[in-house]
Amino acid sequence: MSTQGGGAAGNVGMYVGRDMLAAVPEDRRDDYLRLVQEISDLKYQLGVEVARQLPRLFQEQDDEAIEHYLDQVRAIAGVGWKSGVEVARQLPDLYHAPDPGIAEAYVEIVTEATVGPPDDDKTQAFAAELEDLERELREIEPKQQRATELKSLLAARDRRDERRRKHAQELAAALPPILARLRPKHRDCYMLEVRLVAAADPEAALEAANTMLDLLNGERVSHDGAAEWVRRGLDVLEKNKEVGRGYFRMGSKYSLEVLEELREGLALRQVARVLKLYATALSGRDVAVRGIDEMDSVDRFGPDHIILPADMRFFEDDDRNFVAYKVAAAHGAARIEFGTYRFTLDEIPDTVDDLTTKYGPGAA
Amino acid sequence: MAVETQKMEDFRLEEEPYYLPVGDEVELFTAAYEAHLPVMLKGPTGCGKTRFVEHMSWRLGRTLVTVGCHEDLTASDLVGKYTLRGDETVWQDGPLTTAVKAGGIAYLDEIVEARKDTTVVIHPLTDDRRILPLEKKGEVVQAPLDFQLVISYNPGYQSVLKDLKHSTKQRFVALEFDYPAADLEEEIVKQESGVDGDVAERLVKVAEKVRNLRTHGLEEGVSTRLLVYAGQLIHGGVEPSAACEATICRPITDDLEMQRSILELVNTQF
């Protein structure tokens, strides 16, 4: 039999030494291990001590004494396991004292010393009251947790409201100058769509106000297209505020994709270089082609560029829209070639002279 | 030598090549010929340099040997070399030697394309020595007085790798060519292609506009030669738009957007 314990011995092998097991008669070793296991289940340290003491009791082959020993150990361990360990160590020696009653007296002394005097009424009342309080506290713990959650939620709402008011104030300051740049024909559409976004999130409305200005003034999207672009942005905003704000800032891929999907007609960027070359060839000057959305950053009547709509959607098919672009580019090229906007009133006398010289007295 | 004489007769132009002078180039060339001076014709592709030399060859009654120079053209290709003919090695004059001996006009077209050793060969022909050394043969050919060396040179092709040295340039009387003025170009297109004046005028207008793109992605503008091609196709029944696409848009650029721009210019005219 292994001293390292078997299936029946559980983990007692950890504190049952080979020499201890060897000291137990072979036919009683299973009983030894079982009893040690039982005591160990009460307290590990008790099991260690009982494992040390039991072999000599087994050698005496007095099962009644063994049972009595274990009962006394269990009893004392019930009131204090540390006292129990000491009693388990001392008891076998006391069994062999001349006075057989001394072991019983020893156990009683240690037991009473460990247990102490019984509680008085006041102490018992304290204990009862404490028990009641603890029960009540346990009962209200979920309510306290809920209260904490609610406080947190309300604080977050307050912070959101604060931010909302701050952004609403910013929107109030930003809108008038934006509206001043908005073309009148887009006013109704613009106000309606920006209002929808503002109701959902003023911060997103700030972004939308600027983006919508560029989209509508730049003719990059129709009014219906603008409404659809906003509607889809509001869907995004409802799911995630930050992503939604990025959408209205035109800072998300999805936003650009939606805009591309909603675009109608022929985009200038698709034909800008062809038109540039066309206008350059016509005018004999290096002509740049700019989108109408760039109009604010360049001189509209500059001598080196033509402003064209970002999209041309006069016609259903792009070939005819391209022809429309061509007409506009040719017009712009002619303006540049012949210096339409270079003319000033001061030049009138010289111009009359030139025309008279060139075409005769009646021409001017 | 009978064979060579026959060959040289092949280089004589029997009919007057059509050429419409755009300035005093005919007089200048004639004076240079009479003074035995070599001439350099400068100008863009297809502006009429070769036609001008042909015309002058006919006008002066001289044979014309034209050599289209290329990057593999060596001095031996111009001067001549020994070749195997049957069991013997015989000397074969190159086109330049042939022209020198016959006293004709040797026209080296786009000389800048040829290998550098060719300039060593032409230098002695361009100063008062007027000689052509045949080093491999150990012979020196003295150019007769009626021989004239003419080279053409397209400044638009010059680069750090390809350009004529000043020591070469300064041996020639230079005649500058460009695309003719609109009325002259219309006349040329009409004459050469057979189209009427209206079509010729439209073609020239297209060319004028396209030439505005020379500094915007086009290396060269539309040559008069291409306008003549376009006119010939139109005269042959091809739709003007298709004719111009084939002769103007596609040959001068591979840039699709540039091609489209040019086609739009064509569509504006036709």
Nutshell version of this structure?
Chain A is mainly alpha-helical. Chain A contains 15 helices and four strands.
What does this structure look like?
The complex is a heterodimer of chains A (364) and B (270). Chain A has 364 residues and is mainly alpha-helical. Chain A has 3 domains: 18-115, no CATH class; 177-262, no CATH class; 266-345, no CATH class. Chain A has helices at 18-22, 29-42, 44-59, 63-79, 81-95, 102-115, 121-181, 187-200, 202-217, 223-239, 241-248, 253-262, 268-283, 318-338, 348-359; strands at residues 266-267, 288-291, 305-308, 311-312. In chain A, the strands form 2 sheets. Chain A has a two-stranded antiparallel ribbon with strand order 1-4. A two-stranded parallel ribbon of chain A has the order 2-3. The longest helix of chain A has 61 residues, at 121-181. Chain A starts with 17 loop residues before the first helix and ends in a 5-residue tail after the last helix. Residues 1-10 of chain A have low confidence and may be disordered. Chain B is an alpha/beta fold and 270 residues long. Chain B has 12 helices and 9 strands. In chain B, strand 6 (131-134) and strand 7 form a beta hairpin. In chain B, helix 8 (182-193) crosses helix 10, helix 10 packs antiparallel against helix 11 and helix 11 runs antiparallel to helix 12. Chain B is elongated, with a radius of gyration of 21 Å. Classes of the chains: A mainly alpha (364), B alpha/beta (270).
